[in-house]
Inverse folding.
């Protein structure tokens, strides 16, 4: 009875973590679509600064990370690495989004988490789900079209964002093990803001003081940072980095959907096929985790 209860509790914990990730992905991609509409007024740098700056203020006001116990140099270093990877990831992603469609940018960015998943893989089933997700990505943005139809600089920015995404997952997992999730997300976002604010002030300047841009930036911060990253740090406590990375294969599907709803981008047949493949891959990875 105790074993059965423990198994059920573990499965329930996994389900909650997956639900948190789904909600996080939906909000972050909606925020990305809204952010793209602000580039003409504030540029990627300005929007990134508003996103991380507002998110840091909200998370610090809510979590009050300064009230916790002192941090050792090792733990503080993990939080700095977590926040820095978060800030650079956001900046590189918005630079890529300036040159690429939302779904394509997210697809290329996903190379980072997929690589992390492969490095952590120890079972054939994990490789199968990873391969299925990769097949979905191929349908979403066929590699054969990159050289002729995708901006090279944008693709490089997206790849760089993907590398930072992998670092964010790794350092976020470590941070969640040594610091309470709320405190970790608040300190990490404050570090991310410190990294991105100088770029925003240098490039956007007076645009950051326009009321309409500030309000839109606040909305982007809520949807793209404050809400999803708080959910993700909680999920990282319940899922290993490898499984987290595979589940994040849903991001291109969410991005394509956000592009349809907010930017008027068309969803081609290949995109629909990709959505089905990555959902199946994510569900399979979740079931594999729940059985352990």
């Amino acid at each position: 009875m105790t074993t059965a209860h423990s198994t059920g509790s573990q499965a329930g914990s996994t389900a909650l973590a997956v639900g948190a990730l789904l909600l996080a992905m939906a909000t972050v991609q909606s925020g990305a679509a809204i952010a793209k509409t602000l580039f003409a007024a504030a540029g990627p740098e300005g929007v990134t600064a508003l996103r991380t700056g507002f998110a840091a203020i909200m998370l610090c006001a809510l979590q009050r990370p300064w009230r916790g116990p002192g941090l050792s140099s090792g733990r503080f270093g993990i939080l700095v690495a977590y926040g820095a990877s978060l800030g650079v990831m956001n900046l590189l992603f918005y630079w890529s989004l300036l040159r690429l469609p939302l779904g394509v940018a997210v697809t290329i960015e996903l190379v980072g988490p997929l690589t992390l998943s492969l490095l952590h893989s120890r079972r054939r089933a994990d490789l199968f789900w990873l391969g299925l997700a990769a097949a979905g990505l191929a349908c979403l943005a066929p590699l054969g079209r990159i050289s002729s139809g995708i901006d090279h600089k944008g693709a490089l920015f997206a790849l760089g964002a993907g590398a930072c995404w992998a670092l964010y997952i790794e350092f976020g997992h470590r941070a969640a093990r040594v610091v309470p999730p709320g405190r970790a997300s608040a300190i990490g976002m404050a570090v991310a803001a410190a990294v991105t604010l100088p770029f925003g002030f240098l490039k956007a300047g007076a645009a950051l003081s326009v009321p309409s841009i500030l309000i839109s930036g606040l909305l982007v911060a809520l949807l793209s940072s404050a809400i999803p990253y708080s959910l993700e740090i909680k999920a990282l406590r319940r899922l290993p980095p490898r499984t987290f990375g595979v589940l994040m294969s849903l991001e291109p599907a969410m991005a394509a959907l956000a592009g349809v709803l907010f930017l008027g981008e068309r969803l081609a047949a290949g995109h629909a096929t990709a959505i089905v493949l990555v959902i199946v891959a994510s569900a399979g990875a979740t079931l594999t985790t729940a059985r352990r």
Residues 2-290 form one domain. The longest helix spans residues 2-36. The chain has a mean pLDDT of 81. The CA atoms of residues 10 and 283 lie 16 Å apart.
